């Protein structure tokens, strides 16, 4: 199996894309460290699915936006499995606010989870990799909004744009440790983050009309790209973004 014997840490894995990634990597043969907020109502479901896939898995309640907790997460993963080979920074949030009305709390939450979390988790992971002599993979779940504007979601765009440059920088800085660093940029994926859209048939149809593939994507389709990015065959892939969006990003049409 593609990831047999590897240990993968996936943040925000209680539901949505993170759960899809955790399950895919487990089916590829990895042991999985599931990280999400404490007492998450969906975490047990992810753990149950991992167990029935035959995976070794632990759940480590963590708020990734808190640096001490992010460091504690890496320590807990190493304690559980002896090493961590793969870090998937997937946890993410978005807050709707017109730019002129955006509040400091919303900005701090979005940048804290989406950018500060990946920054310090990558640091803790890279320090662990250095201690055990090198070799590792970091995959950040970014968004098409690392490139595309998203009016009323300026903090989200700033976080994902920042994640793009973090990836490019770390690809260079961490190459001597044989760590590759890549982003996966999903388009519109059917998860709870899109609940308000999924509950609005007119908006949903307008979105489908904008996607050349004619539909939203699935967590499994994002997980497929993660599985590739951490595979032995992707050893020369670093500093890149793989866009998984059914063609949404480049669908400019004359009206
Ligand atoms: N669904 C989409 O259309 C889409 C598109 C592009 C990018 N993304 C990105 O994919 C990632 C996953 O999104 P999703 O759609 O699965 O969303 P989701 O809301 O279903 O899941 C996000 C998970 O992150 C967890 N999380 C939130 N804050 C956290 C924190 N401080 N510490 C630890 N965990 C935390 C949540 O509890 C939740 O389980 C996010 O980074 C998101 O920006 C999603």
Q: Hetero groups bound? A: nicotinamide-adenine-dinucleotide
Dominant shape = globular
The name of the CATH architecture is 3-Layer(aba) Sandwich
Corresponding CATH superfamily: NAD(P)-binding Rossmann-like Domain
Low-confidence regions: none
Q: Quote the beta fraction.
A: 5-15%
The CATH topology is given as: Rossmann fold
Tally of DSSP β-strands: 7
List keywords for this structure.
alpha/beta, binds nicotinamide-adenine-dinucleotide, seven-stranded parallel beta sheet, 255 residues, Rossmann fold, globular
Short description:
It contains eight helices and seven strands, in the order E-H-E-H-E-H-E-H-E-H-E-H-H-H-E. It has helices spanning 16-27, 43-52, 67-81, 104-131, 154-173, 195-198, 201-210, 219-229, and strands at 7-11, 31-36, 57-61, 86-89, 136-141, 179-186, 241-244. Residues 11-12, 14-18, 36-37, 40, 62-65, 90-93, 113, 141, 143, 186, 188-189, 191-194 line the site of nicotinamide-adenine-dinucleotide.
Please tell me about this protein's structure.
The mean pLDDT is 97. The chain has a single domain (7-250), classed as Rossmann fold (3-Layer(aba) Sandwich), CATH 3.40.50.720. The chain has a 7-stranded parallel beta sheet, with helices on both faces. It is 43% helix and 15% strand. The radius of gyration is 18 Å and the shape is globular. It is an alpha/beta fold and 255 residues long. Nicotinamide-adenine-dinucleotide binds at residues 11-12, 14-18, 36-37, 40, 62-65, 90-93, 113, 141, 143, 186, 188-189, 191-194.
SSE topology:
Elements (H helix, E strand, L loop, with lengths): L6 E5 L4 H12 L3 E6 L6 H10 L4 E5 L5 H15 L4 E4 L14 H28 L4 E6 L12 H20 L5 E8 L8 H4 L2 H10 L8 H11 L11 E4 L11
Parallel strand pairs: 1-2, 1-4, 2-3, 4-5, 5-6, 6-7
